[in-house]
Protein 1
Amino acid sequence: MSTNASQNAVYARIRKNPRFAELVSKRQGFATLLSVIVLTIFYGFFMVVAFNPNLIGQRLSEGSYVTVGIAAELFMFIFFWVLTAVYVKRANGEFDAITTEIIRDASKEVK
Amino acid sequence: MLARLNLALLALLVPALSFAGDAISATEKQPLNLHAIGMFVLFVSMTLGITYWAAGRTKSASDFYTAGGGITGFQNGLAIAGDYMSAATLLGLTALVYTKGVDGYIYMIAFFAGWPIILFLMAERLRNLGKFTFADITSYRLNQGKVRTMAAVSSLTVVCFYLVAQMVGAGQLIKLLFGLDYNIALFVVGALMMVYVTFGGMVATTWVQIIKACMLLAGGTLVMVLAMSQFGFSFETMMGQAVSLHSLGEKLLFPGTLLPDPITALSLGLGLMFGTAGLPHILMRFFTVTNAKEARKSVLYASGFVAYFFNVILLMGFAAIIIVGQNPEFFEGGKIGGKVIGGGNMIAMHLAKAVGGNLLLGFLSAVAFATILAVVSGLALAGAAAISHDIYARVIRKGKATETEELRVSRFASVGLGLVAIVLGIAFEKMNVAFMVALAFGIAASANFPVLILSMYWKGLTTRGAVAGGYAGLVAAVLLVVFSKSVWVTVLGNAQALFPYDQPALFSMPLAFLITFIVSSLDNSAEAQAERAAFDDQYVRAQTGFGAAEASSH
């Protein structure tokens, strides 16, 4: 894919902008944190399924059919989805605002 | 007998995005179902109308591959959900909960958990770097010819195996639900798919998927609500009866035979999670939206619909234990606990009939057919894009093909893929094709995903590394599936499997990463230096979207 010279100049300017480094480290840090949370809970749950299956069928309270497994899974469905909502809100708001600003500055300087 | 049924179900469910296998093929053709056919005709006329409208708006390559990049996040979210939830989700997973209880729920979370990861690590970079196919991203700063050829080969392998599994399942399901002959059913599916894709491109395919997703969500919800009303909407009442009536009893609440050992559990989790992130038809959907903002929203909506629907299926499966499992009408010879009429995959359909009569059964059958059509259309489009955009336009013509020529090739490719799907579907009618979807996911996770993610995140990636790792993942995934029980024993008739697990991802995916890493690191050619240097500009574009493909205006 060919990129023309003026586009490369903009890329170079964006790279030099300290706001770009800030955007990348903030967003990447946030995305990594959320990924680690999801992966830890998910594979943690799978480890319990693999190594201690009896815990999965344990009831939360006497006479109820809501087990540890069912409650944990329902929690994951809801919590993971809430995390996606949190990421989308912050990325589409805060992070995209910085992005727009960075691109505007870099394009202006080139012209 | 029960063990065999379980085995058949497991085979069906390993590829839960598809459905196939002997639970269906062992069944008889059913009488013509007029409600179902009526509703299906309605769906087809609606989608053909949309295709006619879409054909008028499909002029450029961008229109054809990505609907001009003008789909909104909400629309794309529905379409992704439509692409992702196949008839197996509805039929196979309901049946899994019905027979194995909470095992089915564990399976569903594995199918869901990939989505947040795709959002956090990939969605915005995919949109910012890609144009029509995911090979646009992997070949962004690498050798176009070699990397695109590799990506196209593995994409087409994934698409073909997936397509055949869908077609065989479709033929058997339609025979069962509509009373149509297997071959006629394949021609109907293949012909409709060709019409949607060839004339309407991504616009028509997207709308077919959106309509189907709405039908699936509405149909499932209706069945679930009607079923739950029989228990006064009480989960506890329903579960109490289910546990006391089911042959597994209390074991319904514990993990069972589906995840017999930690390796299987882990390999399955990896394969489903990262296989999803390497499926060409799913990745392609990220290029249909306006910008990274909408790409993120797509995942938010898609994962919301998927999560919701999986929970609906859990309730349907448990309710069916009482409503279907205790009704002699649904068992052969009226013997409760005997063989379910139409096979294990018919549980959801029987439940619809029990709670809503023939009308609801007809509706749900039409939903199942629509679901198959939407999934095969998405697959055919992704395959056609790999042939026309990657192989023809970039590798053979080296970027010199005109848009008209490229479009013509993509239309021929769609028709060709449709014919291949019909022919292979007929050839594989009697075979257990369950392994094909396991293979598709395995290849997607082992050949597509490692190269794709490294191309976006790792500066050190070079052409040699990407090509070596990609082909290694492809070959390893294919070999491990061939040596696994589902091919080596079930298809080839050997006594003992050489590879003891069904899902190859835990082994083939790390291998692909390792080889890509080693070969790239040892590569000191001038080309490799230039490729590493080009990463910096790619990185800025991936992060900011500056220079990304824009939506064409209509």
Protein 2
Amino acid sequence: MIDTWLPVGVVLSSFLPGLFIFFLAESRIRLRTALNLIGALAKLALIGVMLWGVLNDHEYVFRHTVLPGLDLVLKADALALLFVTLSAVLWLFTTLYAIGYLEGAPHRSRFFGFFSLCVTATVGVAMAGNLFTFFVFYELLTLATYPLVVHRGTEQAMRAGHVYLGYTLGGGALLLVGTVWLYGLAGQADFVHGGSLAALPPETAGQLQVVFLLLIAGVGVKAALVPLHGWLPLAMVAPAPVSALLHAVAVVKAGAFGIVRIVYEVYGVEFAQSLDLLTPLAIAAAVTIIWGSLRALFQDDLKKRLAYSTVSQVSYIALGVALFGPLGTIGGLVHLVHQGIMKITLFFCAGNYAETLGIHKISEMDGAGRRMPWTSLAFTLGAFGMIGVPPLAGFVSKWYLGLGALEAGMPWVLAVLAASSLLNAAYFLPVLHRIWFRPAPSAWPAEHIPQRGRWETAPLLLLPPLATAAAILLVGLFAASAFSPLDWAKLIADREYLQWTP
Amino acid sequence: MTDFLDPLPWLIMLPLAWGTLAFVLGPGRGGRLAIAAIALQGLLVLQLAGQLLAGGARVHAVGGWGAPLGIDLLADGLAAVMLLLAQAVALPLAIYARGYFAAQPKGRELFWPMTGYLLAALNALFLSADLFNIYVTLELLGLAAVGLVAIAGGQAPVTAALRYLLATLLGSGAWLLGVALIYGSYGSVSLAILAPLVGADAPLAATLAAALMLAGLLLKTALFPFHFWLPPAHGGAPAPVSALLSALVIKATFYLVLRLWLELFAPLTTVAAAQLLGILGAAAILWGSALALAQTRLKMLVAYSTVAQVGYLFLLFPLATLVPPDAAESAVQGGVMQAVAHGLAKAAMFAAAGSMIVATGRDDIGRLGGVGAHLPLTLFSFGLAGVTLMGLPPSGGFSAKWLLLRAALETGQWWWVAVMIAGGLLTAAYVFKVLRRAFLPVASGDRVTRVPRTLEFSAFALALAAILLGLFGAPLLALLAVGGAA
């Protein structure tokens, strides 16, 4: 009984506080903070229980029939928990960061209300037990993030919001058509290891290929697959905690996670391979990786450079999924977590530079390392991680992706990985050079927060990036130990490949 | 059960009684009475729904005199669903209207009596079992609706009301002509007696009658290109009236189209006619949405949105006619679900729009700034209603779209899929046009005042109901299946 309601509890633990927060007066700061933190901690506690259960081969399933033949299913399996845990942990850090970041800003109740809804939608996406449920939360995510993107209400923000809605609602429509079509062909099926479509008669193969295209295009919008990525660089006008959440956990990850679910648990990776669907996906991911990196090179706006970097890095996940074989799977899945930790660190740091010193552009970053050594240290770890320097998180991902490429017999992927690493270095190292080795200017663009004793900026702004930066190092160093993201990804890969023998 | 306690006649008598009583009590009075009575009507419908689910469709002979001499009332699943919708929409709207007319007294004098008659006509229409009684209810419904449009007085509303009167009289006239032709051919107007007589070999007069009746109903339902009267009438009336008209009155004539199409005239239906209805529906979706997007007045935007949403209702005909029974069932369920979802959502949207207009003092989308900050619950209700209209999950509108899409793909009619998707995106465009304006801070020189709590909460209740319908739609479909209407 309690097993059924645990997944629901995880969803409600951010939904209910979110609803309450909407109706709080601006001035009720303590109550709002308390609600946020209680929700975040309760979520973590529930997830902890389920992690233990799933490790022991237990599954938590909640099912509610919406219409005949249409069930809303929340399921906590190994794959769901990988993403849920990531979301819940990073939500906690981002909430703390946002409390510091928005101190004194207007419309905080509205902000935190939608912030909670956004996380609710994300954990819903993670625990969706079938395609329909996934679609429900995927659309909720669109609606919940729109007010966050336009939060500042400036002309630029409104325009970004417009573009964001256009892309994501369009993507949602494609996903809907694909889903209805698939339900018509195969009836209702839960996500299962190995997929549920292999038993369909062979003459439906053509339709299944079209449906696959619709579904991947639908989730590809949020995953920012080129050419569907146009909204992401614009959306960086949102406040830093929103960008952090958008790039690391919520929106782009929901898209990438959708690709994982569709390939592994709707089609089944072996069946998808037999329909010749994986190679086109790998090519799309490779193109995105290179294109995103190339565009990142030419951005002077720090957040924009990071946004293009996200375009590139998120497609590592899609690439891993598309490499047929368990090693590629492990690489893709572990990058889902690693990219999140690294990118959230980088966005926290970008927010700190902007809030503390008024630095928005890379050309203004000269000597920032001396004024803000801790933030810059975190930024450096994030950047090295992205480049793939051992023993940081990004190295582990790339190592497994490389092995997966060889295993899948696609050596050209190695060239893509190498080129991407070089490009990562090319757009991150100059930034690091400016931070550490250039002399500081006589005055910062706009110093909002002065140095106070040992604190280079507000404590709530500094501690979250330091914590996530430490995580970048730890998940890399202790990748081989139990309960590391890598270990969990291996567990999932073990369960996804049914007949595969290396 | 004794005849006296049967809910069917009471559903008609009660609103007639409280409408008349409100009239006697004097201008603007009777609101509290109406709320209590509608709540009672709601309980009666729930009781009726329980009876139907347990015992199947049934007939009530009024006063013990059955057809052909007396009047029969027929309650099946489809009728019960519509009755449920009518009371579910009317109750929050009555609460809303009390608050609204306290803030905006223009038109309050005759609101309650007219609303009583309107509900009596609606309930009678849903329960009628013969074509002539339906004619009477159609006329009463039309006159009450026209009267409600005109109650605010003033040049524009009266012009709109006259145009509406012309349309509705023309529609009822066509219906009456059709009824006369049917009577001439078969010698009866009772649905039960006619049903076995009308076959594929029906005389030309019967076919002509069917066409006339259908055309009259389409005019009254404001299906494209007969929608000309709707936006000024719905956009110009006081907000509670607009809500009642958009949510319920046009659904009543849609209900008749559906019932005749599926039952009495089923042998006469052709694929070509069904496709034509579908094409008109598609044109309504695209044209209505595009015009909604072009509006600068909030209530006109919502009114054009109704023109568009009516289109979805008519997509069920090509999807349900001469196709495998599975797909047809799904299509009819989708159409009825859309009628219910749109009823709840549009009532919520008009109510929320009315609150915004009261608060800002003007009906102008460009000057909605500050509404988000001062009326968050109202804006939230507007947004939730928008979610249903866009067909995003979970909502009644989504369930409707899902069922229709499934039928379209199952029968290989992919062009309706494209229409529905395009309509959903256009809807998003005009809903967000309002939302993004309302999020902005209040413009200098403008003022946003508070509105009574009841206005905010009644709109929210309606919007929430439209959302919950998406999570708990299965019981509604079970009710719909009673008596094989679907």
